[in-house]
Amino acid sequence: MEQELEMPVDTDIAKGLTETEAAQRLEQYGPNAIETQKKESLFLLFIRQFKSLIVAILALAAVVSFSFGDWLEGFAIIGVLLINAITGFILEWQAMRSMDALKELDVTMARVIRDANVKEIPSEKVTIGDVIWLEAGDIVPADAHVVEANQLQSDESALTGESLPVEKKPGEPDENAPLAEQIHRLFKGTAVVNGNGKAIVTDIGAKTELGKISQMVESATQTSTPLEKKLESLTQKLIWITAVLAVLYFVFGLLQGKDLLTLLKTSIALAIAAIPEGLAIVATISLAYGMLRLAKKNVIIKRLSCVETLGSANVVFSDKTGTLTLNQIQVNTICLPEGTLEVRVNTEDKKQALVSGDGELVKNTSYQKLAELSVLCNNAHITPDTTTGDPLEIALLQWIYLQQIHAENLTQKNRRINEIAFSSETRIMATIHQNEAGYLVAVKGAVEEVLSRCNNSLDAEQEISLDEVGKKKWVDMSEQLAAKGLRSIAFAFRQTSTLPADDVLLQDLTWVAMIGFLDPPRLEVVPSLKSCHDAGIRVIMVTGDHPSTAQHIGETIGLTDASVKPMTGRDIPDLKQLNDEDKKRLLDTRIFARVNPGQKLDLISLYQEQGDIVGMTGDGINDAPALKKADIGIAMGLRGTQVARETADMVLKDDSFVSVVAAIAQGRIIFGNIRKFIMYLVSCNLSEIFVVTASGFLSLGLPLTPLQILFLNVVTDVFPALALGIGKGDSSVMRHPPRDPKSPILSKPHWMAVIIYALLMTGSVMFAAFYSAEVLGINAADDNNIVFYSLSLAQLFHVFNLASGNSGLFRNEITKNRYVWLAIIVCMGILALTYYVPVLRDALTIQNLHPIEWIVVLAASLTPLVLIQVLKRLRVVW
């Protein structure tokens, strides 16, 4: 309730700031934002590219070259250093830009009163003096002074450590009191968990209590995601394996009496060849591009680790309202004691039409009372252009306004003085009003809950007793509406001359009517559910609605059939005392109705104990624990509370289940892309290692110079790998079962394929070198060039081997990837420069090749591609 208080800032509580005043204060005080970590400058980002093991090894190679007087090779290695740094800088900068773009899509909104209207604005635009309106589920956008409170409670545990909700009241704030005792203030970042109220903003951004704490932290600590840890582990293994090979090669070469400088530089080059340059950066780019694609499909990913988990999900608990239905709630059926009216909206002139039933009923007292209660027991706001509030309450106001009933007259005659907010426990909402006759208690809620508090019914023009038989009639009617897919809400009231005590306020009510709301099912969900079935994903509806309503929607969209009945919350057994039969019954159920938040948690735990990866959709503040417990928490962006959106791993901008399936598919594609570019990089690097070490152990000439190996890594590896990482992926990903999240990036079959790929490229190139030297009588310099160009082209063509094994030879996700063709064109162009530009020719010791030598190069580079395609068709390799 409003009180006459000394306001800390000059603001009209009823009208709020004007837009002009708000703009002036926003310019004066700045945006309501907290800079938790300073952005790294582009200069520091570039310098950081030199802080790596790869750079240290390259620098050592350059020093060795300079010390032995090989100036050309030394400067060439420094050039490679710069190319590596520039490439890494560009890729990481692009990744940072992509992540910034994603953050801009996930904007937190706040409701403020400006020019006497309630408006939703980005929380960054909230300024000092703004009057904010808060309800259960909202995140407080700024520090504020409470001026009106209806059972208002906030969760300040993140700020003060107090685990219990704190009741907030209007009053003079004592800023010297501990934060936990400041009941007249609200703090930025805390969550409203009950009731509603108004508050005037006193501090924003860095001046808030949360901002002061944030300033004490110099930088945010970022933990590695599971994928990053797996990539780091993979790189470490490759480094150690190749380090051993390099040492063996060096020792073996010394025993053979080979040149020390060549041995040293080749050993260093071998170590470099083992490290897949840009592995983490390409992975980040792949994740960022995938997340941007999802953003275009109405899915905002808030945590990178969520992308990894998405591809493993095999169970999805989905809410009904707005996710499996359109969330276009309309008043459909009005059930009065005297009869029933069917309601439709005429889309031509936007006038409400009563298309069936006795039209005279609208003149009855019960109909007029229902209209009055629909306006009074309502927190929604609608204007000709905008609507804010709960969709069901918005539907009630739309029905009222289209009937040309003047809501303003009703609210003026019945001044609201208090409210009992809706909760999942009581399942009712009540508002208390003062009028000429005394006090009016307006109530709406679940049919069973409202009926249990009613002793009378408003029949025609008078109140009559409502006995158990009469209550049973209304329950049966609710069942009939639910069987048609309608959601029933009951309305009742109590008029008294004096205000009843709180403990009896909601007793001795008079029943008025029941309204059936229609929320049509999303027909586009049908193919998405089939896609989930094909992908080995079980979809389970979990709703607080009536079981018959849930059953009707489930049958309509193909989730279940008439033979499979829903399980209600009261039928769910205690999970701590489950026997095998109960567990099987729970795991076989596809629709759970009348489920409370605690039971959602239990269901998630049950499936997780079976080893399932569980996704859970939610929108309310009571869904937050379940969203946090699930492996993938999915919040609704349109109707979800801020608390739900903050807790979740991903947010659906359209609230549709179709977007959930799109996210799972994209998660699988992203992980598939990462696996492909890793297989490509590792197999290419292994082929270089095998070529050099095989030549050394077989006492053959040096097939590749250290600089040539470095060139191969920089040119033929990075660009095709990047193209694989940002491809649109395999369209058949949703026709395969989910992967095990505990499995490594490369399983044994993948490692087997990688080794076979590398051996085939090595064998083909080595045979070309042997054939050129022994049969064609080509000199050692030309032989070196044949190996260099054969391996370069073989690695480029090898990118086509990374297509899925069940895809077509010429029509697959690789050949359709335009970035792959662009990468090949760029790499071909660079290889041409090495042959024709004198500086590059000298640095890489390139000689002119005869036509017959180019034929050998072409044959050697295409042979691995042909052989691997044959093995893939025979299912020998992945």
UniProtKB/TrEMBL annotation:
Its main location: membrane. It is found in: Cell membrane. The chain crosses the membrane at residues 50-68, 74-93, 238-256, 268-292, 677-698, 710-729, 750-771, 786-807, 819-839, 851-871. InterPro entries: ATPase_P-typ_cation-transptr_C, ATPase_P-typ_cation-transptr_N, ATPase_P-typ_cyto_dom_N, ATPase_P-typ_P_site, ATPase_P-typ_TM_dom_sf, ATPase_P-typ_transduc_dom_A_sf, ATPase_P-type_domA, Cation_transp_ATPase_P-type. It is a multi-pass membrane protein. It holds the Pfam family E1-E2_ATPase. Residues 1-70 form the Cation-transporting P-type ATPase N-terminal domain. Keywords: ATP-binding, Cell membrane, Membrane, Nucleotide-binding, Translocase, Transmembrane, Transmembrane helix. Belongs to the cation transport ATPase (P-type) (TC 3.A.3) family. Type IIA subfamily. This is Cation-transporting P-type ATPase. It comes from Xanthocytophaga flava. The lineage of its organism: Bacteria, Pseudomonadati, Bacteroidota, Cytophagia, Cytophagales.
